[in-house]
Structures are given as structure tokens and as C-alpha cells.
Amino acid sequence: MVKPGWTVNLSLATLAVFMAFMTPIQILLPLQLEHIDPQDKNAALSLVTGLGALVAVLANPIAGAWSDRTTSRFGRRRPWILGGALAGAAGLAVTASQHTVAGVAVGWCLAQAGLNAMLAGVTTPIADRVPLGQRAQVSGWTGLMQSVGLVVGALITTTLVTGVGSGYGTLAVLTVALALPFVLCHGEPALPRALRPAFDARAFARSFWVSPRQHPDFGWAWLTRFLINLGNALGTLYLFYFLADAVHYGDPGTGVLILTLIYTLCAAVTAVPVGALSDRVGRRKGFVVLCSVVMTAAALLLALVHTWPSALAAAAVLGAGYGIYLAVDQALVTQVLPQAADRAKDLGVINIANSGPQVLAPALASPIIAHLGGYTGLYVAAALAILAGGFLVRRIRGVA
To answer: Where are the domains of the chain?
Structure first.
């Protein structure tokens, strides 16, 4: 059994990652790019976030694989958590200083590389250290940090500091500061050098392919996560512009903050209790199906009604559904990993299903908005992706 302090400090490190990820995507990058290129802000945001997500697709599993092979006396995960935090903070500082779309793209790619190395470190301790009967509850707390990170980041960048540059700078400092409690307070066994396999470049490259034929449950879990996160990315990537252009909300930055607060509170209401319930009954898949139905309803509400009250209602419903998902998804994934020696690498491959949608969503969203029904078409597409993910989770056989 892991102690509450361990869970709290891992949650703080996870908060740091997602605060640094999500706040720029939702608030700082749209503001920065709107100032740089107001005529083509949608295309610029798609380019920057798409390139950053492409870096994330590569960086996360590679960092995870090297984490599995790290023989530092400080353990396998903590050096990557701290090193990734420092590199991610440096990337945020570079992004803040840019005045062209190309410069912002370079800075954001650097930030994504560092933050994904950190993410590889913070996602693996649950599989390394947490007993099966605790995993959904611990996953509920760490998963909730995705939403809490955006709330904290939005509060900082809309109320506590002024200006895009100071927003990036504050996030950079907090990314490192919030990583330190877990890094400094919780030791982990070192990997003996004798147990580290000899490096073979071809074998290392081949290891990133996990055959869905040989490991079908891993494949279905990956596809389920990909589709649900694709729907979530389609629904949230253009939220700032949706409020400005479709809802005609006067202050879209504040609007994003309000919606995120509601979303997070509703996610908190469901995430931890559902995690505890999932651990108690020993079931995961039914909760994923439930979350997909709830989230689909929220996406359809956004698709059909473009008003501020409907956006508030959709945020509440979407948050409740995503809270259910956060509670059980990570616990489910840890139960389908092919082998213990490659946990961080395999979780990195799974995490491509988080970052991959960030690459695909901009490529899909921009033409959907332009040619396939505007924001109505965008949120219908989000609903279909989420519903498909909930349907396919039933194909997993080795988890109840």
C-alpha cells in the first residue's frame, strides 16, 4: 500500500506537467498567436500545437524507454522527472520570448520535449509501486490533475499575472517547484547495471512497436484512449475561439477559466469516488463505457446550442464524464502492459494516444470549421470519436 503523502506528491508532480501543457494550449498560445497573426490565428494555432504534439509523440516513449534503462542511484524515474521539468521550463521561457509563428513553434516543441520526458517519469510509478487494489483510486487523484492543472494555470494567467510573457515565466518556475517534493522525498530502488540489457539500436527501435496481434488487450486499450482523447482534443482545442466567435462571449479568456472551473469541480466529484468504487468491485470497462456516453451528451450540447448557459451546462456534464474516465483509464492500462521490465516505454507508447490526438485534432478541426459545419460539425465529430472509444473498450478481454 502506498501512503497518502506519496500520492499527494506524485499528484503535485503530475499537476506541474499538465499545468505546463494545458495552460499554453488553452490560453497563452491563442493570445500570443492572435497578437502575432490575427488574420490566420486558427491556422497558426493548429500549426504550433500540431508540431508540438508531434514532438510529444516521439519524446514520450523514447524518454520512457531510457527511463527503464536508467541505472542512477536515484532510481529510474526521478532523474527524468526533474530533468524533464528543467528542460520543459526552459522551453516555456524560449516560447515566451518569440515574436513570430515559427519562433513560437520552435519554443513550444522544445517545451513539449522536456515536459514529455517528465510525463514519462510521473506516469510510471503507479505501475511500479501501487498495488492493484489501490490503482484506480490513486489514478483518480493523479488523473484529476489534468483538469486542476488547467484551472490553476488559468487562474495564474488571467488573475495573478498580466501579460503572456509573465504567464509563461510563472508556469516555468512552478513546473520545477512542484516536481521537487516527489523527487526529493520518495526514494526508489536503483536498477543494477548487471540487469540493464546491452544496447542494440535496431532492437531498441523495434521495441516501440507493440504488436496488437500478440497483445490485443494493449492494442484495444491504446485505441480506446486515442479515440476518447481525440474527441476531447477536438472539443477543447478551439474553446477560446469558440467562445469568441460562436458564443460571442465578451471576455473569452475569463470564459475559459469559468468553464474550466466548472469542468474540474464536476470531474473531482466523480473521479475519486468512482476510482474507489472501481477498486472495490474490481471492474474498469463499464465505467469507461459510462464516461463515453456522458461525454458524448456534452459534446452534442455544444454542437447544437451556442449560448453561454449551454456552454456552462456542457462543461459540467463533460467534467463529470471525464472524471469517470480519469478514475479508471490509467488503472486499466497498467493491467494490460506486456512486461514489467518495459513499463515506462510501454506507457510511453500508450501516452501516444494522449499526444497523438493533439497532432491529428488541429489537422481535422481547421477544415471541419471551415467546410463541414463550423463549430457544430467540430463538436459532432468530437461526439462520434468519444462514443467509438467507449464502444471499443469492450473488446478488452483480460480486464473486467
So the answer is: 4-395
Sign of CA dihedral 382, 269, 135, 57: positive
CB 257 within 8 A of CB 154: yes
How high does pLDDT run on average in the chain? Answer: 89
Indicate the class that CATH gives domain 4-395: mainly alpha
DSSP string, 251-298: -HHHHHHHHHHHHHHHHHHHHHHHHHHHHHHT--HHHHHHHHHHHHHH
* Cell of residue 104, nine digits: 513560437
Interatomic CA distance for residues 219 and 395, integer angstroms: 10
**pLDDT reported for residue 341:** 66
Torsion angle of C-alpha atoms 58, 60, 61, 62, degrees rounded to 10: 70
Question: How would you class 280 by CB atoms within 10 Å of its CB: exposed for 0-12, middle for 13-18, buried for 19 or more?
Answer: exposed
Angle at which helix 78-96 crosses helix 4-23, to 10 degrees, equals 30
Please report the beta strands in the chain, taking only residues with DSSP state E, as ranges in sequence order. Answer: none
CB-facing half-sphere around the CA of 72: CA atoms within 13 A: 15
Q: What count of Cα atoms within 13 Å lies in the side-chain half-sphere of residue 132? A: 9
CB 370 within 8 A of CB 237: no
**Most confidently predicted of 32-36, 41-45, 48-52, 360-364:** 32-36
Q: How far apart are CA 252 and CA 256, in angstroms?
A: 6
Q: Are 311 and 298 in contact (CB under 8 A)?
A: no
Q: What is the DSSP string of 347-384?
A: HHHHHHHHHHHHHHHHHHHHHHHHHS-HHHHHHHHHHH
Query: What is the C-alpha separation between 185 and 170, in angstroms, rounded?
Result: 24
Q: State mean pLDDT over 325-335.
A: 85
pLDDT digits (tens, 9 = 90+) for 20-31: 988 998 889 999
Sequence-distant (≥ 6) Cβ neighbours of residue 372 within 8 angstroms: 381
Segment 122-157, tens digit of pLDDT: 989 988 888 888 888 888 889 888 778 878 888 888
Burial of 269 (0-12, 13-18, 19+ CB in 10 A): middle
Cell of residue 236, nine digits: 477543447
